[in-house]
Amino acid sequence: MNRRNILWSTVSALGAAFAGSRAKAATDAPPSNKLKVVYHLSDADKVNFVLGNIQNHIDGVGGPDHVTLALVIHGPALKAFHQAQASPDVSARIGNFAKDGVELAACGNTMKAQNITLTDLLPGFVSAEKGGVVRLAELQSQGYLYLRP
Asked: Distance of alpha carbon 134 from its chain centroid, rounded?
């Protein structure tokens, strides 16, 4: 019985030491203050709302140097970003986001369905060749937080 208590005490002490070393290693690592966030937009009626959220996000963290943002667009919302149809406000916001380093990804499947290419979209867009939902999953697997306002 005494050997069992000694063995249990040893195992418990080793577990506590291991847990303590893991906690110390986590606190020794420099904190990453730069969040990675991907916004998902597919609803045409939410275009201005989502663009406003992204601008509020940039402003709220103190500028684009403090956050890594991506916007993935598919479905009906993509029409708002066609050069021929985009409002001046949307054009200006997208131009600013592109300058701020926001990844602007257009769904390749939606582009095919709408019979458009990247040159038909506002400057700054890249194509999510495998699809918008695939790009969303890729970014999430890279540690991006997912927001769908």
From this structure: 13
3-state secondary structure of 30: coil
Rounded to whole angstroms, the maximal C-alpha distance in the chain is: 83
Residue 46 has pLDDT above 70, yes or no: yes
Do residues 95 and 123 make contact, with C-beta atoms less than 8 angstroms apart?
A: yes
Residue-wise over 85-98: b if at least 16 C-beta within 10 A, else e?
ebeeebeebbebbe
Q: pLDDT digit string (tens) for 82-91?
A: 999 999 999 9
| CA-based nearest residue to 51, from 105, 84, 93 | 93
Can you count the helices (H) and strands (E) in the chain?
A: 5, 5
Distance CA 10, CA 16 (A): 10
78-120 per-position pLDDT tens digit: 999 999 999 999 999 999 999 999 999 999 999 999 999 999 9
CA-derived radius of gyration, the chain: 23
Which superfamily, per CATH, for 35-147? Answer: DsrEFH-like (3.40.1260.10)
DSSP 46: G
